[in-house]
């Protein structure tokens, strides 16, 4: 037995996959052979869904059929909507989402079918329903009326509409779509690993996704995008960001939105993509100071710590300008990542080996109950 121990499984290969790979040396995120950034600039999130599920980019006919399939699964169990209203106002929306994903599982007649075909159909159902749990979960908790999905809008347009209650401008829809692609898949982050570990017991795809939601909530992972926006709002103006960061760093605080286990001290290409999107958005919304503030923050972190921003750093202000409430930033990340996680669960089910690692035991040995003071 190998006794090599890597804290945090750093650099450990956990799976073989044909889904994605972070080629850090060449600053490329490989998605089924394509460069994720090139895809984000040339195709839509719906194409990514097709690519992830089928392994190839869809033709225009296949894209239309995929969109039809997704929209035909928009029906949402009314009982689950009623259940969402039971959460208190202070509920964390990732907890609401985790519960919603578990609840809709029971309405899926194919829940226990692990075949590729059934997993494909369940992935489509999840993609149709997760954005609704995100948007209407928020509405339930903030005591606002539910919104029905609109089939006349694109998949992405409808998601943004259900969150904000307003039909998005074309430009807003495009930026949101790019952000969904940026978040769609990223090799083996903690949440995807959690989903694969769960799926490796032959547990169902809904359970694997619910586990991924729990993982993604943490601030070292998906929760960082909300923390970034709270920090930017706390800063307020561009003159204040450097003193705030210097103060946090002097207290050895972690700055959310910087650093990454795999990229380490290299650029996250998705952050560059979202920075460009933010540059477009600030012009449209006349909010140039927000971009300038972010750029100063980026320069300070590079100078002081040699750290680069990750996707969350620039996705956060983008979501803010799109009118998305902060507490929905991480649920939106999960909704976008649903396709990546589904692809990994399908792959795990098709080529499974139960995850069951060992430990490096550091505790005592040779204790006996009769020697304990508990037993008189
Ligand atoms: N702010 C300040 N210092 C940092 C940061 C940061 N954001 N990230 C890493 N460091 C420092 C650490 O303090 C440590 O310094 P030291 O060696 O002087 O003690 C060094 O860099 C290495 O840090 P580790 O925690 O060992 O690196 P790890 O690979 O485990 O960290 C992580 C990766 C968790 C993402 C980290 O960079 C972090 O906490 N970032 C902030 C949270 C964040 O933005 N998460 C989003 C990740 S991307 C995503 O989910 C889309």
UniProtKB/TrEMBL annotation:
InterPro entries: Citrate_synth-like_lrg_a-sub, Citrate_synth-like_sm_a-sub, Citrate_synthase, Citrate_synthase_AS, Citrate_synthase_bac-typ, Citrate_synthase_sf
Top-rank taxon, per record: Bacteria
Active site residues according to the UniProt entry: 260, 312
MF annotations from Gene Ontology: citrate synthase activity
Any single GO CC term annotated in Swiss-Prot or TrEMBL for this entry: cytosol
GO biological process: carbohydrate metabolic process; tricarboxylic acid cycle
Keywords carried by this UniProt record: Transferase, Tricarboxylic acid cycle
Reaction catalysis annotation: oxaloacetate + acetyl-CoA + H2O = citrate + CoA + H(+)
Pathway participation: Carbohydrate metabolism; tricarboxylic acid cycle; isocitrate from oxaloacetate: step 1/2
Similarity remark: Belongs to the citrate synthase family.
NCBIfam families: PRK12349.1 (NF009004)
Record-given protein name: Citrate synthase
Organism: Paenibacillus azoreducens
């Amino acid at each position: 037995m190998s006794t090599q121990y890597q804290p945090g499984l750093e650099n450990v290969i956990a799976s073989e996959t044909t889904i994605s790979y972070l080629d850090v040396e060449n600053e490329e995120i490989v998605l089924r052979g394509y460069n994720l950034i090139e895809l984000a600039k040339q195709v839509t999130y719906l194409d990514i869904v097709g690519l992830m599920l089928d392994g190839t980019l869809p033709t225009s006919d296949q894209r239309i059929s995929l969109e039809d399939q997704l929209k035909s699964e928009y029906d949402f169990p009314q009982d689950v909507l009623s259940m969402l209203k039971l959460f208190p106002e202070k509920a964390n929306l990732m907890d609401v989402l985790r519960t919603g994903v578990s609840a809709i599982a029971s309405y899926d007649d194919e829940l226990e079918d692990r075949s590729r075909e059934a997993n494909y159909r369940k992935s489509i159902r999840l993609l149709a329903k997760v954005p609704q749990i995100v948007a209407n979960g928020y509405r339930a908790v903030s005591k606002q009326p539910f919104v029905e999905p609109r089939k006349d809008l694109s998949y992405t347009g409808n998601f943004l509409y259900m969150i904000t209650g307003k039909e998005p401008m074309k430009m807003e829809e495009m930026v949101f779509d790019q952000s969904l692609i940026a978040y769609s898949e990223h090799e083996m982050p903690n949440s995807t690993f959690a989903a694969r570990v769960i799926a490796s017991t032959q547990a169902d795809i809904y359970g694997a996704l619910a586990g991924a939601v729990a993982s993604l909530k943490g601030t070292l992972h998906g929760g960082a995008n909300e923390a970034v926006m709270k920090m930017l709002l706390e800063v307020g103006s561009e003159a204040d960001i450097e003193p705030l960061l210097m103060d946090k760093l002097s207290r050895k605080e972690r700055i959310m939105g910087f650093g990454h286990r795999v990229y380490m001290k290299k650029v996250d290409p998705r952050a560059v993509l979202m920075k460009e999107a933010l540059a477009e958005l600030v012009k449209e919304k006349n909010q140039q100071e927000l971009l300038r503030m972010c750029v100063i923050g980026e320069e300070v972190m590079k100078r002081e710590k040699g750290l680069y921003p990750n996707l969350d750093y620039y996705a956060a202000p983008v979501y803010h300008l799109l009118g998305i409430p902060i507490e929905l930033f991480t649920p939106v990340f999960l909704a976008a990542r649903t396709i990546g996680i589904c692809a990994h669960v399908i792959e795990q089910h098709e080529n499974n080996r139960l995850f069951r690692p060992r430990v490096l035991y550091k505790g005592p040995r040779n204790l006996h109950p009769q020697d304990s003071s508990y037993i008189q």
